[in-house]
């Protein structure tokens, strides 16, 4: 990108502007030392003398080859003019002396004239004749933004920076995205400020809507006047205008439109008239008291929505903001409309907007019709004269004043009290109904809970009975199976024992077994028991005796 210079004019950088903008712009081409690139030439009140285009002695722009190359060109110019050269003849060593590292510039004071060392290395302090009338003044970085040393000035700024410089004739110029090296024989090149163009400190906002219009920064220069006093004067004004915004510049009676972007004004004849937004804005605006046809004062609150499209028209009519123009015109039009309406035609209508503008059956349709047919049309037509498009207008409130207003307030207060009392009664009834409904719901829930609990208890009893029956059946089956198995085992044991006894052939063994049975029987019934054979005569006589005793006892029982 080419380095941009400008003097006592408005520098607009590398961007196209609207055809209406006719502000001088100066650029240095990388291939030409003093070629001014200003686009299409045209006559404008804003075109001023560009001092940078003129030949300045010992002034070298910094090109792509860097600072050292520019210093070499400056040194050559000084030698050709018969002046003290800029570069020192000292040769660096590598063992002792003042050190200059790569990327730095060594500075030497040679009897008040500057000398520079560009080659890295060490520069010894002897022989003494080499330092006679010379003093070492340290080093500075080659990439430093500003280097000032005994009339030598080096300035180089980055893409977002701008340097404001005053030359020996107090001509102020601005450098952006470039730099220069210069040696002032008479006077000095003073770097007044290095400005960060993307972050200007002063934010400009619309006082009513709060919209950010842009940011500015003023660069001032101290000047000595008579009596040794010093005063500050603004020599440059930087502007950073966001998208959809613009600025109006003024020089005498001429106005110019400046679009969005970064700009700087150095021409003292050019002033900033104002910053404006081209986007939509909306605002609620109270009006002054307006009298109806029957002399009832009323105050309206209206809603406005607009968009500024031609700021030059607005400033030409002398208004600083769109709101100022709309406020005066709105007050005038509403005063004319309300002055032809009666109090009765306005009292029932509190607002005018898109929701109620088409209802022709409204009792206050005269008020609505007047606002719809006259206010909107007249306001729209009047706004176009100021470069404003009126997009919406609505009356959102009105307040009557005077005795009628006091009477209306009393009636309104009574109506409100009646409404409050009715609302309280309705609220109490509603609360009672809700309480009864709540109690009924609680009862219903409790009944449902009791039914659920009874169902659960019945299910539990049935389940318990089924479980008990199942348990008894299982136990009985188990007991029967156990008895059957015990009987089978006992029968099997008897059978086996009888079989074993039957298989005994020896007589002595049988006799011994009988004796053992006898012994077991005696042990079972006791030693005093008498065993009577059941198949003998004695056993039959015992049976007869038992029968006789039974018959005798039966006969006695019958007699009794």
Tell me what the structure shows:
- The radius of gyration is 61 Å and the shape is elongated.
- A hairpin with a 2-residue loop joins β9 (146-149) and β10.
- Strands 2-20-17-16-15 form a 5-stranded antiparallel β-sheet, with no helix packed on it.
- The protein is built from 7 helices and 25 strands.
- Mean pLDDT is 79; it is low at 7-45 and 350-361.
- It has helices at 67-80, 311-316, 322-338, 365-385, 403-502, 507-525, 537-559; strands at 4-7, 10-11, 59-61, 98-100, 104-110, 113-117, 121-123, 134-141, 146-149, 152-156, 161-166, 172-176, 179-183, 190-196, 202-205, 212-224, 230-241, 245-251, 254-258, 261-265, 271-277, 280-286, 290-291, 297-308, 388-400.
- Helices cover 36% and strands 28% of the residues.
- By secondary structure, it is of the alpha+beta class.
- α3 (322-338) packs antiparallel against α4.
Task: Give a summary of the structure in a few sentences.
This protein is α+β, with helices and mostly antiparallel strands. 36% of the residues lie in helices and 28% in strands. The radius of gyration is 61 Å and the shape is elongated.
Give the spatial strand order of the biggest sheet. 2-20-17-16-15
Strand content: 25-35%
User: Span from first to last CA?
Assistant: 155 Å
**pLDDT < 50 runs, ≥5 residues:** 7-45, 350-361
How many β-strand runs? 25
Give Rg in angstroms. Answer: 61 Å
Instruction: Report on the biggest sheet.
Output: 5 strands, antiparallel
Secondary structural class: alpha+beta
Helix content: 25-40%
Number of helices: 7
Would you tell me the overall average pLDDT?
A: 79
The global form is elongated
Coiled coil: 462-499
Protein name: Band 7 domain-containing protein
Keywords: Coiled coil
Organism: Psilocybe cubensis (Psychedelic mushroom)
């Amino acid at each position: 990108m080419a380095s941009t210079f400008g003097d006592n004019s408005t520098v607009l950088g590398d961007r196209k502007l609207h055809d209406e903008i006719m502000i001088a712009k100066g650029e240095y081409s990388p291939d030409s030392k003093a070629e001014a690139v200003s686009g299409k030439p045209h006559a404008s009140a804003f075109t001023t003398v560009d001092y940078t285009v003129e030949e300045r002695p010992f002034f070298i722009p910094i090109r792509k080859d860097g600072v050292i190359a520019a210093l070499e060109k400056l040194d050559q110019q000084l030698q050709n003019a018969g002046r003290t050269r800029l570069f020192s003849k000292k040769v660096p060593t590598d063992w002792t002396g003042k050190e200059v590292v790569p990327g730095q510039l060594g500075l030497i004071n040679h009897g008040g004239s500057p000398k520079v060392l560009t080659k890295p290395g060490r520069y010894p302090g002897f022989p003494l004749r080499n330092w006679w009338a010379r003093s070492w003044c340290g080093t500075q970085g080659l990439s430093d933004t500003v280097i000032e040393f005994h009339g030598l000035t080096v300035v180089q700024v980055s893409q977002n920076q701008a340097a404001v410089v005053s030359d020996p004739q107090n001509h102020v110029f601005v450098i952006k995205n470039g730099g220069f090296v210069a040696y002032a024989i008479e006077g000095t090149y003073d770097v007044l400020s290095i400005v960060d163009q993307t972050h200007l400190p002063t934010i400009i906002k619309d006082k009513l809507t709060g919209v950010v219009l842009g940011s500015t920064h003023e660069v001032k220069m101290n000047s000595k006047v008579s009596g040794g006093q010093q005063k500050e004067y603004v020599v440059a004004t930087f502007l950073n205008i966001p998208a959809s915004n613009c600025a109006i510049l003024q020089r005498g009676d001429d106005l110019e439109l400046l679009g969005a972007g970064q700009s700087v004004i150095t021409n003292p004849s050019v002033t900033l008239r104002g910053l404006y937004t081209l986007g939509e804005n909306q605002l609620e605006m109270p009006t002054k008291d307006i009298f109806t046809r029957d002399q009832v004062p009323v105050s309206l609150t209206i809603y406005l929505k607009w968009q500024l499209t031609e700021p030059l028209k607005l400033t030409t009519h002398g208004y600083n903001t769109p709101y100022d123009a709309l406020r005066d015109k709105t007050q005038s039009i509403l005063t004319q409309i309300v002055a032809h309406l009666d109090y009765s035609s306005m009292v029932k209508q509190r607002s005018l907007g898109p929701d109620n503008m088409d209802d022709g059956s409204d009792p206050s349709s005269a008020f609505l019709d007047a606002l719809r047919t006259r206010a909107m049309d007249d306001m729209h037509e009047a706004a176009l004269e100021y470069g404003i498009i009126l997009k919406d207008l609505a009356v959102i409130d009105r307040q009557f004043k005077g005795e009628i207003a006091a009477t209306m307030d009393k009636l309104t207060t009574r109506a409100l009290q009646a409404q409050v009392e009715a609302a309280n009664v309705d609220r109490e009834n509603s609360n009672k109904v809700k309480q009864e409904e709540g109690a009924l719901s609680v009862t219903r829930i409790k009944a449902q809970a009791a039914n659920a609990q009874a169902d659960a208890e019945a299910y539990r009893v049935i389940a318990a009975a089924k479980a008990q029956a199942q348990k008894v059946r299982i136990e009985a089956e188990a007991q029967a199976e156990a008895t059957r198995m015990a009987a089978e085992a006992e029968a099997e044991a008897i059978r086996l024992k009888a079989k074993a006894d039957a298989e005994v052939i020896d007589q002595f063994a049988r006799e011994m077994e009988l004796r053992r049975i006898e012994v077991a029987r005696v042990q079972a019934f006791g030693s005093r028991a008498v065993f009577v054979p059941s198949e003998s005569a004695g056993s039959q006589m015992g049976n007869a005796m038992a029968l006789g005793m039974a018959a005798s006892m039966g006969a006695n029982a019958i007699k009794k």
